[in-house]
């Protein structure tokens, strides 16, 4: 297939298919009932007309938040046990107040499909791991029964609204059941992936003091069993708030002393009871690291997530009961929480516990083929890895069921777009998306009625007032700027845990432009309404979709006696790669030999995250700091990206310019 020019789409939706989407039906209904712009019944005559129709709908969705979000609640038949007094009582950011007085329950909506007897034996969850060829099936009726049984068991142990429930689980059906049972009783969920080391998990869970922990004995990944019993034992010792531990024996180990067996807690035939909670009642805590201090413990609400995920799954991905929704993720990434949004719209979700590259790079494409996934989500890094491995999944596998491929985690470069249309499927909707853990959703993403252009995300999402701003706070098009959101979204955090004054929350998003959410991404909004994401504008490390703060890296690395100081940078590269070097200042007398490098890598892999092991360890004479002694990260990243030193930082604010000039020379050497 020859690649179209930049002005010509790679893909256009079939007119009949576009006309049959939920988005078109929603617009027609919202035009009749809520003043949305009228949607003509005939398909758009051309790409420009399609873009204008969506732009009009998007403009209405952000100009009239009350009517738009009311329309969303009615279209998806959100069940309020107590009706709201208003939609948006206070639009000020931070602190916007959504649907005051309303009560509902997220888990009730996630299990609504099970209420229909016709769905009793239909799959709610299909599960595969590296050791299985065919997926295991958890039906809607069985999912509802297990959630009911586990919720009753939690209540029997005193767990209710406001209590915290932690999980150290991989992407398995038990994790979905545990989350829904937690939400059903009004407790607050949080999870960490089992490839996180004990220190990384404790940095998160110790902040919220869980009363319950669901924990595995180990997991299978990359063809190997990974025993986690010692890590779990350490978690139990270091979390004095725990009074209940539930053992999930994925590797068949016996339950440790004092732990409850998973199978015993989900054995009863009990209908779930859903605790009505306020709209802004916490649903879960996610973690997104900044550059200093502990990971940010982000609190998101039952109502806010429910509405945002209904909109995103039902309208932007056009998911429904006919779909099988697979997104490769771990429970430490917000995409796992978003995967469960498929249940909200009655879709079957596919959980996969294993490496996408084992036994070879094509493993995830094989999972999609075997499960007959209709919507397949992955990372930009996996697409690029597939291209470099010269895979031909469209030729070698039956991917006829796949109608949509979603990508996120980092910007998908043009070569990734080309490869998908050349080697996966010519007639597939590529929904490249970008958002964040901070809102557990997308700011910009797929629109099923719009064409797909090379290297560009289709449009801002409904209800998201996304703009690109310059440093003076002025919006612009066709120019790189800061991604900002000028109006509130229901899934924005209700706050951070242990941040009663809201200081850290404010400083994370609102300190640059008062009252405006600055996300920390470089973005271009094009004149045709598409979006290009260029990567992080701050120093957060975003690798394979999992964000880690540099402070987490420093804490581990600088425990080694040979390391006096360190600096880590994550750099998005034009070909879709991600280069993460670690610069170290050695202690007097120390040498950066293979032994020291090996101990750095091992420490980060075991104590923090294998995703954040540096690509290179480079010794430097010294690191640049501000005049107050804070090590400089963002200017170093800008210099390594090609920005001249004088434009990357005010030279007068740096303690030693020679240390900064080292990175200029390094950039030249890498380009040579």
UniProtKB/TrEMBL annotation:
The AMP-binding enzyme C-terminal domain, residue ranges: 555-630
PANTHER family: ACETOACETYL-COA SYNTHETASE
Family: Belongs to the ATP-dependent AMP-binding enzyme family.
Entry's Gene Ontology molecular function annotations: acetoacetate-CoA ligase activity
Superkingdom of the organism of origin: Bacteria
Record has Membrane as a keyword: no
Species assigned in the record: Kitasatospora cathayae
SUPFAM superfamilies the record matches: Acetyl-CoA synthetase-like
Domain called Acetyl-coenzyme A synthetase N-terminal: residue spans: 54-110
Chain ranges of the AMP-dependent synthetase/ligase domain: 120-488
NCBIfam families tied to this protein: ac_ac_CoA_syn, PRK03584.1
EC number: 6.2.1.16
TM annotation in the entry: none
Enzyme class at the top of the EC tree: ligase
Keyword presence, ATP-binding: yes
Name by which UniProt lists this protein: Acetoacetate--CoA ligase
Signal peptide extent: none
Lineage: Bacteria, Bacillati, Actinomycetota, Actinomycetes, Kitasatosporales
This protein's UniProt keywords: ATP-binding, Ligase, Nucleotide-binding
């Amino acid at each position: 297939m020859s690649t179209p020019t930049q002005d010509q789409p790679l893909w256009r939706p079939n007119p009949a298919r576009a006309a049959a989407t939920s988005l078109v039906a929603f617009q027609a209904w919202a035009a009749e009932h809520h003043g949305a712009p009228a949607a003509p019944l005939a398909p758009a005559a051309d790409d420009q007309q399609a873009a204008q129709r969506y732009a009009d709908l998007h403009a209405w969705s952000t100009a009239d938040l009350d009517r738009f979000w009311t329309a969303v609640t009615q279209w998806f038949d959100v069940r309020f046990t107590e009706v709201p007094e208003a939609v948006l009582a206070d639009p000020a950011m931070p602190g916007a107040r959504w649907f005051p007085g309303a009560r509902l329950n997220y888990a009730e909506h996630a299990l609504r499909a099970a209420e229909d007897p016709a769905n009793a034996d239909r799959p709610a969850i299909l599960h595969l791991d590296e050791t299985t060829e065919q997926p295991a099936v958890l039906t809607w009726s069985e999912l509802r029964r297990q959630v009911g049984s586990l919720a009753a068991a939690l209540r029997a142990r005193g767990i209710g609204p406001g209590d915290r429930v932690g999980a150290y689980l991989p992407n398995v059906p038990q994790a979905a059941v545990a989350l829904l049972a937690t939400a059903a009783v009004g407790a607050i969920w949080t999870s960490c992936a089992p490839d996180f080391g004990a220190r990384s998990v404790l940095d998160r869970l110790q902040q919220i003091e869980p009363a319950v922990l669901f924990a595995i004995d180990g997991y299978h990944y990359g063809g190997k069993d990974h025993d986690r019993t010692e890590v779990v034992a350490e978690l139990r010792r270091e979390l004095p708030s725990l009074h209940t531990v539930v053992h999930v024996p994925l590797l068949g180990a016996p339950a440790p002393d004092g732990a409850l067996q998973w199978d015993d807690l989900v054995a009863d035939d009990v209908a779930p009871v859903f605790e009505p909670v306020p709209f802004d009642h916490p649903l879960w805590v996610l973690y997104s690291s900044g550059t200093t201090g502990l990971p940010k413990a982000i609190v998101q609400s039952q109502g806010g997530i429910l509405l945002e995920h209904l909109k995103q799954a039902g309208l932007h991905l056009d998911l429904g009961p006919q779909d099988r929704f697979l997104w490769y993720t771990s429970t430490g990434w917000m995409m796992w929480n978003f995967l469960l949004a498929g249940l909200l719209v009655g879709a079957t979700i596919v959980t996969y516990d294993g490496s996408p590259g084992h036994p070879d790079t094509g493993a995830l494409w094989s999972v999609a083929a075997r499960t007959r996934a209709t919507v397949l989500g992955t990372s930009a890094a996996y697409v690029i890895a597939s291209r470099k491995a010269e895979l031909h999944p469209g030729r070698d596998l039956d991917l006829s069921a796949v109608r949509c491929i979603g990508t996120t985690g980092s910007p998908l470069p043009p070569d990734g777009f080309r490869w998908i249309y050349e080697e996966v499927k010519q007639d597939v909707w590529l929904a490249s998306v970008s958002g964040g853990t901070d809102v557990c959703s997308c700011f910009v993403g797929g629109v099923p009625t719009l064409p797909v252009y090379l290297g560009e995300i289709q449009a801002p999402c409904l209800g998201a007032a996304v703009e690109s701003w310059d440093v003076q706070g002025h919006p612009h098009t066709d120019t790189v700027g800061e991604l900002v959101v000028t109006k509130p979204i229901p899934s924005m955090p209700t706050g951070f845990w242990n941040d009663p004054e809201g200081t850290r929350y404010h400083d994370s998003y609102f300190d640059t432009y008062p009252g405006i959410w600055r996300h920390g991404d470089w973005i271009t909004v094009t004149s045709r309404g598409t979006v290009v994401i260029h990567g992080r504008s701050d120093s957060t490390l975003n690798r394979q979709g999992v964000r880690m703060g540099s402070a987490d890296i420093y804490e581990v690395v600088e425990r080694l006696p040979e390391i006096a100081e360190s600096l880590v940078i994550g750099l998005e590269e034009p070909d879709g790669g991600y280069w993460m070097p670690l610069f170290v200042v050695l202690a007097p007398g120390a040498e950066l030999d293979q032994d020291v490098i090996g101990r750095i890598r091992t420490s980060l892999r075991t104590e923090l995250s294998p995703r954040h092991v540096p690509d290179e360890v480079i010794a430097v004479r010294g690191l640049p700091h501000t005049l107050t002694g804070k090590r400089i990260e963002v200017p170093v990243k800008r210099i390594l990206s090609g920005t001249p030193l004088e434009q990357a930082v005010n030279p007068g604010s740096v303690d030693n310019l020679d240390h900064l000039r080292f990175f200029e020379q390094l950039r030249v050497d890498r380009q040579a």
